[in-house]
Amino acid sequence: MRGRSTHRARFTGACRQEGVPEEVAARFWDAALAALPRHGAWFPRTELHQGGVLGLRVRPAPPLRSDIRVLLPPRPDARRAPARKGPDLPALGELRREAQREGADDLLLALPSGVLTESTTASLLWWDAGTLCAADAGRHQLGGVTQALITGLATARGIPVRTAPVTAAELPGHEVWLVNALHGIRPVSAWIGTGVRAAAPEQAARWRELLRTLEEPLPPTRRDAGPADRPAFEGRTTT
C-alpha cells in the first residue's frame, strides 16, 4: 500500500464532516486494514453509509494497465461533491462506461470554463519540459493521494512542480499522466476522437520505479478483534 496515512486521514476527515467522530472512523479504518486478505489481487474500499454505518467492500482487482486512452469532456462536470470521494461514484461510473463505448478507457472532466479537473478515476499530471505540472481546479477536484506522493517525490529531488489550470487544448505535445492508487502512473496513449497523437511516455517508467519505493506492507492481521472492531460487510465483494 502507498500513502496509507494520507488515505486514512482523507477517509476519517470525510467521516467527521458527516458527523462520525474521527476516533471512531480511525478505529474502524485500522480494523478494516487488519481484516483484508493477505493473498490474491483485491481492490478494497472503506465506505460510510446512511446512518453512520461504516463498511468495508472487498472487490476483486481489475486488470492493471500501463497506459490509458482518454476521451475529452463531452459536457461540463456536473458532480455534486467533487472534493469528496463517494457521493458521485454512480454518476462517474456511468461517464466512464460512456467513454468505453467510444473506445476510450476513461474521460476527463472539465468546468464550464473548459478548465480540466481530473478524470472519473484519476488525477491529471503532465510534463512541461522539466517541470511536473498538476491540474488546478480549486475546490472542484478531489485531493489525489497518488498525485501528492508523486509531486512529493519530485520536490524531494529538486524537480520543479507547478500547479496550474489547464484546458484540453494545452495538453497536446506534452507527456500526460492519469494517476491513482490502483494503477499508479498511466501515461495517455491516445486522445480518442481528436486525431491528436499522444506524446511518447519518456518519463513514466522511471517514475513508476520511484513510486514503488513508497510501497509499505499492510499491518499485521488482528485475530483478536472484538465485535465492535470488526468492519461491517467484511468479505463482501462486488464487480
UniProtKB/TrEMBL annotation:
It comes from the Bacteria. The keyword Transferase applies. Residues 215-233 have a biased composition (Basic and acidic residues). Residues 215-239 are annotated as: Disordered. The keyword Transferase applies. SUPFAM superfamilies: D-aminoacid aminotransferase-like PLP-dependent enzymes (SSF56752). GO terms for molecular function: transaminase activity. Keywords: Aminotransferase, Transferase. InterPro entries: Aminotrans_IV (IPR001544), Aminotransferase-like (IPR036038), BCAT-like_C (IPR043132). It holds the Pfam family Aminotran_4. This is Aminotransferase class IV. The lineage of its organism: Bacteria, Bacillati, Actinomycetota, Actinomycetes, Kitasatosporales.
